[in-house]
Write a structure and sequence with these properties.
Elements lengths: L1 H20 L2 E12 L4 E12 L2 H22 L1 E9 L2 E2 L16 H13 L12 H19 L1
Antiparallel strand pairs: 1-2, 1-3, 1-4
Helix pairs in contact: 1-2
Amino acid sequence: MDDLDAMLIGLVDKLGRRLRTGSRVCRTVVLRMRFGDFARATRSHTLAEATAQTGAILLAARGLLSTAAPMIELRGLTLIGISLGNLDDDSAIQLALPFERPQVSALDLTIDSVRERFGSTSLSLRPSCSAATQASRFRCCQTESAARDY
């Protein structure tokens, strides 16, 4: 499940940035899954307020993933995807009492500005690989390097 969470973080991060770049907000988070037997399932959650904050979207996506965990354990998972619905312009948000405009978090703004300046691959919000994964990648790179030398 840690690998799925890492993938989920990456997907939600990209979508949150796209929302903020396009001056959009969403209310519905949809989790799409394909299982080992190629069956598909979707789960969705509608938020109380429209948002472009990565944290709020990630919280909803993680909730959907945790409710689908028993099904994933039973059937295996070959594909995971996130989509956002009920999109609107961020200037046309229905305000909730006490009529304050939701602020984009400082973390989201900082990450967006770093990626805008240094490129979208300059930061990664995914957890680092395990030692075993790193070792297998190292062996793979060594093998490819040795093959090129001949």
